[in-house]
Amino acid sequence: MNPSAETPPRPWPPYVARETVLRELERAIAATPDALDTHFYYASFLRDHGQFEAAIAEFEHVLARAPDHVETLVALGVVLARRGRRLDARAQFEHAVARDGAHGGALVNLANVLVLDEPERAQALYETALRHDAAYAAAHRGLCGLAAARGDAAATSRHREAGYAGGPFGRRPYLGATMPPEVLTLVSTDGGNIPLEALIDEHRFLVHEVYVEAYDGEVLPPHALIVNAIADADRCAPALQRASELVKAARVPVVNAPRAVAATGRVANAARLAGLTDVVAPAARFVGRASPAPNTFPFVLRVQGMHMGRGMIRIDDASAFAQAIATTPPRDERIAIDYVDTRSRDGAWRKYRVM
Fold it and tell me: Distance (Å, rounded) from C-alpha 77 to C-alpha 90?
């Protein structure tokens, strides 16, 4: 025996179990190819095994024979969403809701894909799910995020308590074949999180989540690394403070330290960047709901914690400021940013990101 040889990786028991079930289902399909239930379960195990394209094909096979099967519509939509095919996923969820307007999974998954672009409809869908099941945690979690975005502290707290009554922890699917390194991610119940599925490979790492606002000193899952996913310093200042407290006693590396992220709000960044040579950093300042309009026009008014153009308005005069205060979400403070015309000679604005 060579003592320097690497120990071979140990198999991951759930992976081995799924392999066994997949082979059994393949034999069942070969014996009774028209049994749609078998195809559905086979597709579900393929999905859980990380074989997404094969799972999509199997779910589509079921729907070709039973186009209104709600469970399959929802299951296919979930896989499509995981593959980044949001419009295709939405179509499946819309179909499912049309067939069964009381199906909690259909309602919540449709709301989840609409929450950024159509928050009002997403809210209505979550509320419909709760009318049929008042304790449905996923619907409460969706409403918690929407309430936080519009600054409704009472509703945020109420839906957070119901949505996380089962505890502050979650676990993302692990698709690898061998025993994985375990990662603990810090997540806010209120939104403003990095989409970690794009950054941490689910085939290589087992990812535990702790929702910091719901955490109350429970024993943490085993982990060799902590990754803070709370990224929005303006929207999530209390969550970042709680995350900072949580990692104080950490004995493992911490990536994206919460205390460092907390210093990256828009107003703080503007002040920090203003002193750099050859950099134009528009001045930013907080504006309260009762504050008079700034004296210099135009400027850009932003609602804290909102992105992708939502809650951002160009203000050209005092009347536009008053209208914006009346029509944007009722947060106590907004951010006023000096307007800088950065159009190119062809009249187009260009936005670049460096990551």
Answer: 7
pLDDT by residue (tens digit) across 231-259? 999 889 999 999 999 999 899 999 999 99
Query: CB-hemisphere CA count at 13 Å for 197?
Result: 9
pLDDT in tens, 315-349: 999 899 888 888 877 776 789 999 999 899 999 98
Tokens 């919460």, residue located: 258
pLDDT digits (tens, 9 = 90+) for 172-193: 999 999 999 999 999 999 999 9
Burial of 286 (0-12, 13-18, 19+ CB in 10 A): middle
pTM above 0.70, yes or no: yes
Question: What whole-number distance in Å separates Cα of residue 254 and Cα of residue 11?
Answer: 28
Angle at 260 between CA 303 and CA 307, to 5 degrees: 25
Mark out the alpha helices in the chain (DSSP H runs): 13-31, 36-48, 52-65, 70-82, 86-99, 104-114, 119-132, 137-149, 153-163, 237-247, 258-261, 266-273, 318-327
Residue appearing with tokens 């950490």: 250
Q: Which helix (H) or strand (E) holds 173?
A: none
Q: How far is CA 272 from CA 266, 275, 280, 325, 351, in A?
A: 10, 7, 12, 27, 20
**Do residues 134 and 125 touch, judged by C-beta distance below 8 A?**
no
Q: At what angle do helices 104-114 and 119-132 cross, to 10 degrees?
A: 160
* CA-based nearest residue to 132, from 110, 106, 158, 157: 106
